[in-house]
Amino acid sequence: MTRRYRTAKKIQATAIKLAVRDGLANVTTEAIAKEAGISTRTFFNYYPYKEAAMMGPPPDYPADASEQFVKGRGTLLEDLDRLITVHLARFIEERELLAHILVLANSDAKLDALRNSTILSRRAQMRDLLRRRCPDAKPAQIEILAAAIVAATNAATKDWASGEVDDFIGAARENLTLIQSAAAMLSQSPG
Q: What is the pLDDT of residue 175?
């Protein structure tokens, strides 16, 4: 973990703490910087505005795990499991922080839009990884699968952050296996 990343996470944690304590509308970039022990100029070297600070650094898929996924020789689900495990393991200590972000995003349109933008960015990253892994697949299949994978991990994040489940990675794994059975529903008759 780089010093820059640690500072970005410190600013994020401070921004969330202040928003929970004082209300998002009452938090300023100056207050975040002061509480984090940095200058306002330093704040702006990391984030353009307070809502971006609350979202924190982009939760991109880890580079090494991404390359292992692309070059994987197991089933797509097995190699995806390894990628998602490495990706989510980085957030295990941030359950409370994620819970606060979800609650704040539900009450603030700008923060909710940033959260949705982050999800779309992660979906684009997954789409690119899948394209590299499965170059002969139809683009629509790749797009649909990427959306399903991100939806599965996002649902696990919400369930874990809210306390509905205790095993974050286990919930994500379970949701990923549901993709196949969800697709099978398309060919089933009602009743």
A: 96
